[in-house]
Batch of 4 targets.
Target 1
Amino acid sequence: MSQINIRRTLLLLLFPGGVFLCFFFLAPLLFVLVESFTGLDGGVTLQRYISVLKDPQFRQVYFRTLKIGLIVTPLAVLISYPSAYVINNLSVGRKSALMSLVILPLMTSPVARTFAWIIILGRFGLINQSLRALRLIDEPLRIMYTEGAIVIGLLQLFMPLMVLTLVSALENIPDEVEEAALSLGSGRVGCFFRVIVPLSFDGLIMGVTLVFTGCITAYVTPAILGGSRVLTLSTLMRQQALVLMNWEAATVIAVVMIATTLVLYNSLRLIRPKNL
């Protein structure tokens, strides 16, 4: 088969997926972007952005959402990297069993998983009842409807994604590379940070992007664990669109969420190790 025929075959195979992505993903995003810059007279304007960015509530919610994402993402990396490294070095049987446990939460509805945290974090939940039983507190702690509750819920929600991407990246590293580093005098810790982490950096970028994007766009977990006291961008957007019927502000918030994700992704690509 000639090279031209191969290219035509590949284009034909890519065509259905490309059409699907353009129609159901790119077209709606483009519509939201254009709508956010369209004024009442149909002309191009920045008035919607100016109005939203001047709103103190939006700025407070935006920085709160960023803070939650910047807390959850490093925690997910710190917990997931060692876990993924250990899973990758296990035998096939044990590796399959642990990967099944990692994937299992993804097969459960986020709503069900989030409601389970109410039983744990609630005023009369497992944590407060245990602390009272140990006589460490006299009155129940207010854990629900706080930023801490959202951080815990989002960490449990998106950490499996980080583990999966890191395991996938670590599987592509030949075992001989680590053995060579150890034979040349590198310790386990040094080998991990100087060899394993740089070679799996693409997986780290993908995992960080998935977790951070999920954190700033998640709705169910912040809505249940944060309630109306702790708004995030997603809950604020829903409030503006469906409660206040302010669709103009909602489109601007949607564009800000997308832009924040793109800035993070490109920033991570810039700090990629130069020797790779």
Target 2
Amino acid sequence: MELDFKKVLNKNLVGKGLRNTSVDLSVLKYYKQYAKTYADIHNGIAVLSDLTANWSFTYMGAIAERLHMTPSTRKLEINSIWEDFLLERVHPEDLAIKHILELQFLDMVKKMDPKERCRYQANSVLRVAGKDGQNIMISHQIVYLDTPGEEFPQLALCNYTLLADTEDLPSNRNYIFNQVSGEVYPIEKQDVKDIMSLREKEILRCIRLGMISKDIAEKLGLSVNTVNRHRQNILQKLRVRNSHEAIRIYNKMYHQEDTSL
């Protein structure tokens, strides 16, 4: 079975509306101000996502300079719940773990009493490419915000802040946390490298050999449309723009050289 955690998350999170929010505007205004204040105080990045409208508001602190984000890349509003301008800089293995954890988090809080949901947050540690391609260790937290009405979730807040260079990272650095009781729920055991299906790995091997979609389809007994769909899924999963980058990142995930899969 093909695993694509981002697609599953998107299906479970995004409402049917396009820009027409069902969130009370006074509530939205309150949380927008909170997100801006958080980014200013912590010098981080805060992303407030309206899941009912598939829209996000971003607020940048001083860390944006460390991440080498020019004014043109600091998008204040995004027609998506995904802050791709930042996520595309995250190491692919960390990104996969983040999506797995957030899917676990969403499934968990959906089963809770509505009064309890906002007591929980999911924490991840991400390697993010900064200036000169050097990785910067970033702490990421996501919470679902308290909103009126039965629809859930409506609003999510993601906060990105810098980790201290001298901070000792625990072996389990991806977990769900109850902010009141202090109870920690570790990420469910799952092989992150399984984000790539066997079929996608086959297609990547063919691409590595220089084969075009038509040749791959004939070799694997698939239609060209099916091959192209798999190729697009590969790019989305690995957060890359083309097949050459996909091969390089996939090799990196498996600690292999670029010359082989």
Target 3
Amino acid sequence: MSPVVPLKQPKPKKIPDLLQLRIELAWIKPKIWRRIVVPESITLGNLHHVLQRAFNWGDYHLHEFDIDGERFGIPDPEFDWEPVRSEKRIQLKSALRGLTSFKYIYDFGDHWEHRIKVEKKLLGDPELSRCALFLGGANAAPPEDVGGAPGYEGFVAAMADPNHPEHQEMREWYGDSFNPTHFDDIALSLALQDLKI
């Protein structure tokens, strides 16, 4: 009788640690910011989708990450005068290499610079290994194509003052009233939970 050889058990899959991120739009007062938790194994491509939802962007424009001077995004040989690394398979923890801050730029015309800080590292949680968690934030995100930080400042001023010379034009362009302090944290929380990363 031959000896019984135990079956080799597969190694349990490591649950990735989590990173708590604070994201703030540059050059705007009062601060527009969000705090989220993502798995450190998230790809930059998926982090792009998380950031789009966190700031209610429509993903209509080009974007890139700037991590310690290295650019990550979607390479386009026709338009990239400087090389950009593909964001598709690069995990956040690999791109950071121990750094605790980086930038995400959305819409090269309006140039929305998101300053991202890793606030802390948390133990992995199986429930959060494939999604993003919203923890907090303040103020409404600017509308698309408003003209960057200076355009947004003018937009807010025009929308707030019915006597402003551009009030009616801005209302027609935007299609509604705009409250820069309104922020629907429940809707954002649900939008991030629905996004599978």
Target 4
Amino acid sequence: MGGGFVEQLTATLFSIGWRDVLDIAVVAYIVYRGLLLLQGTRGSSVIRGLLVVLLLLWLSSGLPTLNWMLAQLVLPGVIALVVIFQPELRTALERLGRAGMLGVSFSRVEADTTQRVINEIVDATEEMSGRRIGALVVLQRESGLMDITRTGKTLNARVSVDALVTIFYPNTPLHDGAVVIRDDVIVAAGCVLPHSEQPGLSVATGMRHRAALGLSERTDAVAVVVSEETGAVSLAVDGNLSPDLERTELAERLNRLFEAPEELNRLVFWRR
């Protein structure tokens, strides 16, 4: 019996052609990108619930009444996903039209835009650091941040030094939350972030730093923090906090994270 199984497995493997491999690879990539899009949004719980329903639907194939009841839940679940992820789906389609199916941009404009945004953020961070203006700037990457932007005020403004400094200026309506940037747009300001639950955090770690760490632990977003007390600049990514960064270090790290071309003149000299 074991020999028959081995022969059947061997025959199956030899019957797989390059089209089957391509088909599996494309589906796996689509699922991977979809999971990245879902990460950090409340729709992830809807996905888990829908998967549970599908599993129960498959297991209850011999129970017609239960199977029918579960089948009625599938369509509303799919509709709920479409409604919840309407902004993310629109953004994904825009990126697809701009960058192609593999997410690789063949346009120089995209790289230039990324570099401009990084320069504006670094310049704004430098100015706020010198003036002891506390700030928390979140740069979205692959993970969806719709749940975060919903907690703040929608702006959809172009990223600029003046806009960022104005938002975080003390006693302004939106200064006490986080700014979320997607591509070259300030999507929302005054956003509330989840705080880190790392047990080893120092008691001296400020609330902005805890919020930046908390978001970086749950998503792939990048958070830049300016301390109101000291003016020190920190960078949170992948659950790690890099404190006391100089302008050059911050710019270089952001360039690496977003694969933007480096402009050495702007990295070496401070903006006057």
